[in-house]
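Hi V.,

You were right to ask for the full record rather than a summary. Here it is.
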Amino acid sequence: MACNRGAQETYPAKCAGGVEGLSLNRDKLSTVTIDSAARTPYQAEKPPKKLILVLAGVAGSMAGFFLAFVVEFWSKTREGGKEENLIW
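Predicted structure:
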């Protein structure tokens, strides 16, 4: 079975890779226009190392504080679950 090609194309499932009918209107398709040629940048882009280090330090501090509170809470609740041992 050949694929049907015309102004209003309809591809059967065999031609569309298993899709049950793909409609394609060539009048609504647009082409790509290149405005200018690609150029090589003057300097290579480098990752912002200072920003990455600051964000890693802040995230590590937050994770450390959170872990300290969780460990403290867990150790106090395992001591018997008395209300005066809980954080709040």
